[in-house]
Amino acid sequence: MKTRLILILLLTSYIIPLDAQPVLDIIRKNPAYATCNYNTYPNTLYKLTPAPKGKHPFYISHYGRHGSRYINNPKGYNIPHAMMLQAESVDELTPTGKKVLAEMKTIISDSEERWGELAEYGRLQHKWIAQHMMTQFPEVFEGNAWIEAKSTTVPRCIISMGTELNEFAQRNPQLEISQEASKRDMWYMNHQDPVMKRGKLSPDAKKAFDKYMSTRMGNSRLMELIFKNPDIVKEMVDEDDFNYYLMKMGLFQLNTHLYQNTFLIDIFKPEELYRMWQVDNALWFAQYANFTPNYGGQYPYTQRHLLRKIINEADSCIHLERHGAQLRFGHDTVVLPLVCLLGINGYDLRSDKLDEIEGKGWWCSDIFPMASSLQFVFYRSSPKDKDILFKVLLNEQEARLPIHTDCAPYYHWRDFRRHYLKKIDNFEKRN
Amino acid sequence: MICTHLTAQTVVEEIKAKPQCSAGINYSLPTGKQQVDTPAPDGKKPFYISHFGSSAAYYLESHKDYEAPINALAKADSMNMLTPLGKDVLRRLRLIEQDAIHRTGEMTVNGAQQMRQLAQEMVDRFPDIFVDGSYVDARSIVRNHSIMSMQEFMTQIARHKAKMELRLKSSHSNDQWMYVRDKELEADRFNAETETSYQAYIKANSNNKRLWESLFTSTDYVKEHIDTVQFNDQLFTLAGGIQNTPLDGVITLYDIYTPQEILEHWRLHNAKNYISYGGFELNGGNQPFAQRAPLWNLLHQGDSIKKLDHPVVHLRYSSRGMVLELICLMELNEYGLKTSDLNQLEKLGWANYRIAPFGSSVQVVYYRKDKTDENILIKVLLNGQEARLPIETDCAPYYHWEDVKRYYLRKLYAHEKIRFDYNKSKDE
What we know:
The complex is a heterodimer of chains A (431) and B (428). Chain A has 431 residues and is of the alpha/beta class.
């Protein structure tokens, strides 16, 4: 009876651990959390469960996102900037407004010629992750172990890969390392589904999202702070857009070398940042997770090619005598649906109600901050071991899977592959 | 007379002995040759390497470069116009295309291997530089093969010491001094006089009748259906590219050419490179000045580092065109050659594969006794070998940094004056 109760608890969709703080509290301490996929990555070495008795780690399969970067294109900055320039031209800026405009100019000129590029902070994050991996699993990287690294062809991912590899090579010069960034691997490293397109919402999903968003946008306090006559200036300043993009603009800098200047963040109240987080969290859920009104909530299956590749390659690598790791470097729009497809920590939550996801702990900022990663760490007693165990780390922390195990946080590899191959096979048969 | 290569072989002899050289800037700089270093005077030690390099070998940028000659031959084949050799060449081209599929513009595995070896050679050669506390900063232009070349190089360096600070960067914010184009100079490249001279040179070096007859059953078909200039160029480029891929040693296309034809094909590419990047007098001879920004950067960085406590390495990965122009601008080994006669190039040793092949580099190595040493010496390595500078010295191949700086600054200032006067005359 007791075992069954534990099993039910493990398989339930509710994600929030008992000691969880409400999102608003998290944002008070760490405003970057409010930006979902622009959340920054901490340098934390987590305490992990010791290896299962008699077994040792020998292989890691990894998919990770590039580190902190500059924003991809000027559009998000230009929207509030253009509004401010117009307001300035008619002398509608308050002294605070003038300071805000000056900050915007600094940010835009700093980002010029760096759109989408890896920031220095992003480079550091990968250095940390490599150090953590070698500290947590020294056996995997011992002696002449091998590392096969692949990246998408996007420069920030390639440099993220190179930075991690340099750290590995510096700490163990005997490692056999290969690295590649080829169009040949894009079909699974950054799959673009021709039917379930990125960022696409069905009419029903859009309606639901618009309804959810409508009560959370706007910020009259901000308008009062920045514009002399907020009611008149609305002719040229869209309050919803201005509030949203200005907040993003400020928070994004926590990823760049302007991180110490928090002026643009400090003009917002945590409650305002929290409302933006709610909107973004709901949008990510609607587009990339199991939001049933959006084409049946099947988007996570776009990552079936990657999952199949991870399974097939692990099936082959677990037979190798030598220890080693496969590192893959890609994007948030892969990490998020992959985590949902795997149902890690309950993120496979299926819902048709955007209002309920926050309460059920579906908080995307925990999934795909900059430099986020999934690591499958494999354990065996010897190369002849028939019962390979593994655990999954989401952002370096032990995670739960929705499958049975008698040795959590470890799982039997044969159970995993059977469950997930069947899952994606069934999807492919249906479609 | 000038540009004496260490092998002392003439260009013609060298290409005959090793047809791969005829690939020009698509040739890969050989590795594994132990370079001999002249000992530095007065017990001075190296403390800074300033490096400008090209990427390692990569697949051609466009799939069309592979597809077009295949389509031309396949069409002829469908009309029964190919000889048995022509059919076999078509088969080989398809293998080449297969190897390159979904890899266009990407570094090859041979290129990766070359970068690792070049890095190891640098580490072995300068043990005083790669020590605890050293700072190695690598930057690449934002192109896949350049970034990957940088990373292969750096990962090899990383193996050497745990306590060096290593940095990788690839940003458009560095384009203004790492990936420079000068549109005014480019507009002059193929002016009327140059074009006339180049066309005459092409004509004199395009004797391909024998080749056509060996591939096609009818010369009439060739005349009617094949753009011979383009086909010729594409086929020879693919022939030269094999050496940089896993197909090296598996197939070749050099067997379809005579040694003379190989030489002539090389001449066309070499002349074009000289006109575009070198000191060709008919277009003004100033093309290398396009790289004045990297040279400024080199001069400024040299000065800023001479008092630092720890050794520094600046690695910069750009294009072969950039490296070629920089070498000509710095007049290394007299590659700054100025002539209006394209026929002189091979006689005077101006050969693209010697100057800027894949993996080519200019490395300026700085020597001092200690931080207080006012008499900094440098030497320049061109593709790993000690190079001659157009500057007087009492300790060749070492040069006094102050002399080097003054020489190049004077050269840059003189060019600035030309640009200033030119722009002024335009305004008037």
